[in-house]
Specification:
The complex is a heterodimer of chains A (186) and B (354). Chain A is of the alpha+beta class. Chain A has two domains: 61 residues; 99 residues, Molybdopterin biosynthesis moea protein, domain 3 (Molybdopterin biosynthesis moeA protein, domain 3). Chain A contains four helices and eleven strands, in the order ααβββββαβββββαβ. In chain A, helix 1 runs antiparallel to helix 4. Chain A is elongated. Chain B has 354 residues and is mainly alpha-helical. Chain B has one domain. In chain B, the strands form two sheets. In chain B, strands 1-2 form a two-stranded antiparallel sheet. In chain B, strands 4-5 form a two-stranded antiparallel sheet. The longest helix of chain B has 36 residues. Chain B starts with a strand and ends in a 15-residue tail after the last helix. Classes of the chains: A alpha+beta (186), B mainly alpha (354). Chains A and B meet through helix 1, helix 2, strand 8, strand 9 and strand 10 of A and helix 2, helix 3, helix 5, strand 3 and helix 9 of B.
């Protein structure tokens, strides 16, 4: 094979796999920014409680609790909480469930009339020797199981296309990578 | 800054790309996933611990694939070795996770994990460092005598011992040029998989020395073959984490965009060096990770009150990535100078391909 045809094949390989990688990236970003991926992640309730948007509770404290209005409907907007039962689809825009037993204990959140007062929105936890703030986010939720397969397909396609794109790039530049002949001296 | 809707944090994109890039270089060069460096970094950026592990594992699967493809092109993968080891690795990981669950029930997981990490990593560092220094010296002598030291030289007598075990079936690994009992490969997979599952890591830093010192593969083959294992084990871990909802794909995308370049560079950089150079980097990464684990162990043992220990452990882990990258970059730079006949330090000459 001549050097020119090798470079030509490199260009085709690079362009084709760059297009595949771009398509996968654009598709993933659109699924993410449209909120589709969040809906897959915050899919169902794993326990009885109140579905909330935990991001709105960040500034809450004992002195200045976040007061959530208990409402019904399929969307949580701002400082709202929607009653959910185990297995029920989570309302849109919610990303965590404050469990009934947390409310019963009354240390982190209490129920008063038609409102839920959240006083301790996060607690310190530890992972692999490092501390982090663990909030109500991602608590009491079940992710749609097929999201695992979807993620794997995206990562595999991305890894494959980026790898082949890079191979095409070096071929295009005429950088010859020769196979190493392995022999262990001892 | 980017708002990660699923993880619920705001983190700088540039830092995620930088972490992906640096770990890509190190991972592609020494054949590790780099979980012990990435997870703490993500926690420092504000990601919750479970998300940090999930994002890390998913990015490792993608990055492993990119590195594997480049190592395949360089002929650094022995597929017989890789595929024989996978079953043992998976069995070992499952056993390791079960033992970890047992220790968690006893309430000892944190201390036992850190203590085991320290012992395993320090022992591997000591053995790798001593053996590599011996190989380095022999290569220097060969160099002085005007003889070609070859791509690989290792002085451990363990491979001969393991290759002489006459248990059938005997496997012929053509690319690695190793003939060894299948049970030795499976056992290496089980033991390294067990440690990986127990410590909650990909296990590359255990598997690469095991492939070199027990199976007798060259360091380059060990790196490439281990990356195949990482693609499979990382892929499985990513699937499990995704089902649990521990993965924010945007964070994975940013890290992969950095890892694309890093992993390419790290993988190609192996073609500029001889085996002992890779083993040096591996051993330095082990001792730096050991220091980090010692700090965290001290922090846990002092009742998590001495905050600077935790802070220092994080800084050490982040500094480690930069240091290892600079080391790899300088080796490639020296290799290019050496090829052009320009001056390089004497200790570098036997480590790089001229």
């Amino acid at each position: 094979m001549t050097d020119t045809s090798s470079r030509g094949r490199g260009i085709v390989k690079f362009v084709f796999w760059a297009l595949v990688a771009t398509t996968v990236i654009v598709f993933t970003v659109r699924s993410y920014t449209s909120g589709q991926m969040a809906e897959w992640f915050y899919h169902r309730a794993s326990l009885n409680g109140y579905a909330v948007n935990a991001d709105t509770l960040k500034g809450a404290s004992k002195d200045k609790p976040a007061i959530l209005l208990i409402s019904t409907g399929d969307t949580v907007s701002g400082l709202q909480a929607v009653r959910v039962q185990k297995g029920q689809r989570l309302p849109r825009n919610s990303n965590g469930v404050i469990a009934d037993d947390v409310v019963t204990k009354g240390k982190r959140a209490v129920l008063t009339d038609a409102t839920l007062r959240v006083m301790v929105p996060w607690e310190m936890k530890e992972s692999k020797g490092f501390k982090f703030k663990d909030s109500f986010k991602h608590k009491g939720i079940v992710t749609w199981p097929w999201v695992g397969v979807w993620n794997m397909i995206v990562v595999a396609l991305l890894g494959l296309s980026l790898g082949l794109m890079a191979e095409g790039f070096t071929d295009m530049l005429g950088l010859k990578l020769e196979k190493i002949r392995h022999h262990v001296k001892s | 800054m980017f708002d990660f809707a699923i993880a619920g944090v705001s983190a700088p994109i540039s830092l995620l790309v930088f972490v992906g890039f640096t770990v890509g270089i190190v991972g592609g060069f020494i054949g590790v996933g780099g979980g012990y460096m990435v997870t703490p970094a993500l926690i420092v950026f504000g990601f919750p611990g479970y998300m940090a592990s999930g994002i890390d594992m998913t990015h490792i699967a993608g990055k492993g694939l990119v590195s594997t493809m480049r190592h395949r092109q360089l002929g650094n993968i022995d597929w017989t070795l890789a595929l024989t080891m996978i079953a043992g690795t998976m069995l070992g990981v499952e056993l390791g996770v079960r033992v970890l669950v047992y220790f968690k029930q006893l309430g000892l997981a944190g201390i036992v994990l850190l203590l085991t990490s320290v012992v395993v990593m320090f022992s591997l560092f000591l053995y790798t460092q001593i053996e590599t220094r011996r190989s380095h010296r022999q290569m220097q002598e060969l160099n002085k005598a005007g003889r070609d030291p070859g791509r690989e030289l290792q002085t451990s007598s363990l491979p001969r011992l393991f290759q002489s075990i006459p248990l059938r079936p005997i496997v012929r690994c053509r690319t690695a040029r190793v003939v060894v009992s299948m049970w030795v490969i499976v056992l290496v997979g089980v033991v390294t998989g067990f440690l990986a599952g127990f410590l909650g890591v990909g296990g590359g830093f255990i598997r690469v020395p095991a492939l070199v010192y027990l199976v007798g593969a060259s360091t380059h083959i060990a790196v490439g073959t281990d990356l195949v294992e990482i693609v499979f084990s990382g892929g499985y871990g990513a699937l499990r984490h995704s089902i649990e909802g521990h993965v924010d794909m945007m964070a994975v995308l940013f890290m992969l965009s950095g890892a694309l370049f890093g992993a390419q560079f790290g993988s190609i950089a192996t073609s500029y060096v001889r085996g002992p150079a890779i083993r040096y980097i591996l051993s330095y990464s082990l001792i730096l990770a050991t220091f980090g684990a010692v700090m965290r162990l001290a922090y846990v043992l002092t009742g998590q009150k001495v905050e600077w220990l935790s802070f220092f452990a994080v800084m050490l882990t982040l500094g480690e990535m930069t240091f290892l990258c600079l080391f790899i970059l300088s080796l490639v730079w020296f290799a290019r100078r050496h090829k052009r006949g320009e001056w390089v330090p004497d200790w570098v000459k036997p480590l790089v391909i001229s």
